[in-house]
User: What shape does this take?
Amino acid sequence: MEIRELLDQTSKLPNVPDVVRELIQQLNNPNANYGEIAAKVGQDQTLSLKILRLVNSAHFGLTRKVSSIDEAVVMLGMARLKTMVIASGLSGSVKEVEGIDIKRFWSEAFFVATAAKWFAEKTDKVDEDIAFTVGLIHNIGRLLLHLSKPKLALAIQTRVEESGCSRSDAEMERLSFVTPQAGQALLDMWKFPEDMGVAVLQHKKPTDFEEPSALAAVVNLACVVNAAKRNEMDIAALRDTFPADVAEIAGLPANIQVELADVLELESGLDGLND
Assistant: This one.
């Protein structure tokens, strides 16, 4: 099977709003006019309503109700609003996926994005907004497989559960490629910045690559913390298993393990976008 077979089924691809794609494409551009982008967000009624509902939730604790995207920019700042727009647009790109609990899928993606941003703030090698975005879409190749070939995706999942083999091995056996490759191909098709696609490709094991991406390393560490959280691992066990070689690729301080309790307790505040 070839990745092109997944991408050719355009009716099944995630439906990301144009303004969200534009915003992601501009993340690397220091001269981007985010005022214009905010205006376009304001014109997308579905996107605006979701964001405003979240902004006005108890999580943000604002002193007064915000009724427009322009007000949200003033109250939250453009940097914070950018991440919310991207999260809202991506999480709303599909409503139902066979074989995936979509609410849980995005809840974990929100946490990985938040943790990736936390790690990015600790290094000068990675932009925090880009880390957040790649954290959100790190697993989009798997989502693409379930959307395009649900029976094949289920067969891979069954193979993993019954044999105990890794997902990557099961995917290579059934597909002849792994879903991070499909994720990179989808981002390339959407014309997202190249470094995002490379990070999605490498995020599962950046040390396997000749030129490992610091961005991929940050996302990998966020996934490590997410797995620890999912498996209710205590902080001592997380510190013992934390991959120091990946942290070094990310450019993180040598004593970053000391701060892991903080990242384990992070809350994305974005789960309201799933309602």
Notes: The two ends are 36 Å apart (CA to CA). The chain has a mean pLDDT of 93. The chain is about 65% helix and 0% strand. The first helix runs from residue 3 to 7.
